[in-house]
Amino acid sequence: MGEPADLPDFSVAERDFSTVDKARLVSSLSRVLPAASLLHDLEDLRPYECDGMSALRQVPMVVALPETEAQVVEILKICAALGVPVVARGAGTGLSGGAQPHKFGLVLSLARFKKIIRIDAHARRAVVQPGVRNLAISEAAAPFGLYYAPDPSSQIACTIGGNVAENSGGVHCLKYGLTIHNLLKVRGVTIAGEIVEFGSLALDTPGYDLLPLVTGSEGMLAVVTEVTVKLTPKPQLAQCVLAAFDDVVKAGEAVAAVIAAGIIPAGLEMMDQPATAAVEEFVHAGYPLDAEAILLCESDGTPEEVAEEIARVRAILEASGATEVRVSRDEGERLRFWAGRKAAFPAAGRISPDYYCMDGTIPRKRLGEMLKAIQQMEKKYSMRCINVFHAGDGNLHPLILFDANKPGDQHTAEAFGAEILELSVALGGTITGEHGVGIEKINQMCSQFATPTLNAFHRVKAAFDPQGLLNPGKAIPTLNRCAEYGRERMGANVVQAHPDLPRF
Amino acid sequence: MSELIQAWSERIRAAAANRQPLCIRGGGTKAFYGGPEVGEPILTDAYRGIVNYAPSELVVTVRAGTPLADLEAALAAENQMLAFEPPHFADGGTVGGCVAAGLAGPRRAAVGGVRDFVLGATLIDGRGDVLRFGGEVMKNVAGYDVSRFLAGSLGTLGLIAEVSLKVLPRPVAEATLRFEMDEAAALHQLNVWAGQPLPVSASVWRGGVLHLRLSGAGAAVDAAIARLGGERLADAAAAVLWRGLRDHRDDFFAGTLPLWRLSVPSDALAVALPGEQLVEWGGAQRWLRSDAPVVEIRVRAAALGGHATLFRGGAGRSDVFHPLPAPMQALQRNLKQAFDPAGIFNPGRLYPEF
Questions:
Q1: What pLDDT band is residue A363 in, cutting at 50, 70 and 90?
Q2: Is the confidence at residue B2, as pLDDT, over 80?
Q3: pTM as predicted
Q4: What is the pLDDT of residue A486?
Q5: Using 50, 70 and 90 to split pLDDT, how confident is the model at A504?
Q6: Cβ–Cβ of A202/B305 closer than 8 Å?
Q7: Which residues of B touch A197 (CB under 8 A)?
Q8: pLDDT beyond 60 at A496
Q9: Which terminus of chain B is less hemmed in, N or C, by CB atoms within 10 Å?
Q10: B307: closest CA of chain A, how far (Å)
Q11: DSSP classification of residue A148
Q12: Does residue A492 register a pLDDT over 50?
């Protein structure tokens, strides 16, 4: 036991797929797919060359756009038989290059799986196809007074299949949980073409619970063909408190004080002064510009409950040294408070030609340390960084500002980002809270996990996909890559696409 | 790494080399649950204590052998709790056993189960390798979420040495309401209430009586009481009721007939099998005391969209858990093999095949 012999080959070095025969693949696929569902000319493949990590570009060999689960089964069987890499893709809004195509592989787009199959209001669940947009579920559930709670910032565009692949979060996770907490069942197809259901309509399943393994697996274990989500009753009322602080550490302590008082706010967000200034100029939310940090704390529930919680939050923030506390007086004002926070990413794009968004999560009590360290890094790299945080759960989104057209800037931004990730690990946190590892953070996985644990991840992968065909090269680094890490840096470019989408 | 973990790791390596089965044991309070215990005992109770607990982080990291009662007392001192309300079937249950069994109490439908609160774990696998998954933060998508996957694995994947759990504040206010209604009406009403913004934290229906527990902010509980009506139970009686359900000390759980747990969609029809029944989790958990044939109960549970576990009264039997569909069974067998290639951990406790 424990000999390297029981490790899959792909755990040591990435497999070489250069012998994949495109003509053979296309002819096999054309037997199971209509012509309109199969793309293999360069001009048709171009739109698939990247996801939200737009400068990591790679044109795939073939793109398949199946419309039925039976077609997905056939496609996967063909790819397994021919040894072809498969990269599943939703809306392509991911920020870590998880859906970056493989040069010798197939992109399996679930874009045509767009049906909301059923809203079962009485049992509070929705059965949807993976290409349904996150927000579309809440819109369909709204007439029943229900919604789908996880709200990643790209929710107008991102799909539920992608949310399952990334275990996406949002601004309301502390109270309402991540994707995993809001799923009942995921139906998927393995690389062998077997249809498997993970989870069920009941609250548990017999044997091992594979739902948490599949959720957040970045398309490495199975291809999702149907998702059943839990729907949550819409709170009657939401109200938001905006507090200003003259010191970021004090603001961090205020966050801890709110939670220590036994309050789980619906949202708890923080922005530093440069971020506040950037968004204020953009959306005129009325934020205090002299504050070193501002906090947004939202309460939701019945009117009585909200009134009680807001009063407690207000008292705690004042006792924690807030220089100013405002409570939203109506829905318009609440949305204005949030408008600035939600515009942080576009605002960064407005004040800088490019920005690089990080996603580390750290224990909340280390927030002050992290911010101070980032200030030092700004000097070290001569590059600005504005900071927005999901403060309630310690998830940081530092936005490193750079200019991709300036020689060396991209490289510097990457080095800056890598140092933030390394520090996140050193402070007891993680390199990614909700954006995924993809290809972007794959080197830092070597810092976060020791070799035995990485080996275990590879064995989990092999339990589902022994040939290593689903999304090869992503999420879990090979042992060779970890050995090289530190000696070399990826030459990839890091600009993230969809500047028009709100990101928070 | 602690000496104890080192010693366990060496012992596991030696057992794997000799294909010697090991029976991982915490407090032994759930020995009745699952297939037979086989192998040399490996006791976790010496590895105890809270490693890290910062109440404002809502996270606690605990050694597996820590008595569950000790952990809960430490959390209560900070006005926090394990929100999934793990059962204490007897004194002495451990945190490791709680995670390995993956059993949750009355609050399950409202807040989630054990796996929903697991944030990280240290596991010694069947090679004796010490593996660390997840961490101590709420949001973490680095690597496969193996720590949550361990919940309910009954020690068949490895020795869970430490776990990090999300904790929550205790509710400020709580009240229990009593209603008289038949089963069909109760199942309907529970689903209706769950679709409204009400602070329902637990429910139980038995013999024509439905009890509903409300937990949350004082104002929210008061508003719900005013809206829902019913008869309010005295706090002491309510505490006895919910504790009795959590720990199976309620008289329903006494007796000799086999005890079945049917886990079904909350809106599933009445189970309608011979025997006495108790409904929890807003309709999603149906307890049944029945000597109806195993196959009849399993067929009915599956027809309702769920599964059936022979929870008590199946000691020594190999068919305690609902059979798996073939592709799922193959995946589970592969995963068992990935973590425990020599098949030494608690063999047969979950399924005879692995």
A1: very high
A2: yes
A3: 0.96
A4: 59
A5: low
A6: yes
A7: 325, 328
A8: no
A9: N
A10: 7
A11: -
A12: no
Inter-chain contacts counted by CB atoms under 8 A, chains A and B: 280
Contact indicator for A503, A345 with CB cutoff of 8 Å: yes
- Please give the Cα distance from A391 to A387 (Å, whole number): 11
Cα separation of A76 and A464, whole Å? 13
Mean pLDDT of all residues in A424-435: 95
The DSSP symbol for A181 reads: G
Residue corresponding to tokens 């949030």:
A338
Percent of chain B having pLDDT more than 70? 100
- Interchain contact A311–B (C-beta under 8 A): no
**Quick check: A301 and B149 CB within 8 A?**
no
Nearest Cβ partner for B112 among A181, A209, A259 = A181
Q: Each residue of A286-302: pLDDT tens digit? A: 999 999 999 999 999 98
DSSP sequence for A13-79: SPPP-TT--HHHHHHHHHTTS-GGGEE-SHHHHGGGS-SSSTTS----SEEE---SHHHHHHHHHHH
* Residues A40 and A26: beta-carbon distance below 8 Å: yes
For residue A269, the one-letter residue type is E
Give the dihedral sign, CA B195/B199/B204/B207: negative
User: By percentage, how much of chain A surpasses pLDDT 90?
Assistant: 84
Task: Determine contact, residues A437/A218, Cβ cutoff 8 Å.
Answer: yes
Contact yes or no for A464 and B59 at CB 8 A: no
Residues B15, B342: Cα–Cα separation, whole Å? 9
Name, in order, each residue with C-beta under 8 angstroms of B138's C-beta and a sequence gap of 6 or more. Answer: A173, A174, A361, A393, A394, A395, B58, B59, B119, B166
Residue showing tokens 């053979």? A24
Of A122, A208, A452, the CB nearest to B153: A208
Q: Residues A469-490, buried b or exposed e (16+ Cβ, 10 A)?
A: bbbbbbbbbbbebbeebeeeee
Tell me how far apart the alpha carbons of residues A205 and B276 are, in angstroms, rounded to a whole number: 23
d(CA B148, CA B266): 23
- Model confidence over A253-272: pLDDT tens digits? 999 999 999 999 999 999 99
**Residue pLDDT, tens place only, A189-229:** 999 999 999 999 999 999 999 999 999 999 999 999 999 99
Q: Is B126's pLDDT higher than 90?
A: yes
Identify whether the C-beta of residue A233 lies closer than 8 Å to the C-beta of residue A453: no
Give the C-alpha distances (Å, rounded to integers) separating A68 from A115, A200, A470, B259: 11, 21, 19, 42
Contact by Cβ (8 Å): A203, B335: no
Q: pLDDT, tens digit, for every residue of B86-110?
A: 999 999 999 999 999 999 999 999 9
Distance from CA of A496 to the nearest CA of B (A): 19
pLDDT attached to residue A317? 97
pLDDT at A490 over 50: no
pLDDT in the model for residue A55: 75
Question: Residue B338 and residue A146: Cβ atoms within 8 Å?
Answer: no
Distance CA A169, CA A149 (A): 10
Tell me, letter by letter, the H, E, C secondary structure of A193-215: CCEEEEECCCCCCCCCCCHHHHC
Chain A residues inside the 8 Å CB shell of B327: 190, 194-196
CA distances from A103 to A24, A56, A97, A384, A475 (A): 16, 12, 14, 35, 17
Decide: B145 and B174 in contact? Cβ < 8 Å: no
The whole-number pLDDT of residue A341 equals 86
CA distance A70 to A72: 5
Alpha helices in A236-395 (DSSP H): 248-260, 273-283, 303-319, 331-342, 344-351, 367-381
Mutation target among A146, A179, A204 for the B interface, most CBs of B within 10 A? A204
Q: Is A460 exposed, middle or buried (0-12, 13-18, 19+ CB in 10 A)?
A: buried
Report chain A residues whose CB lies below 8 A from the CB of B125: 456
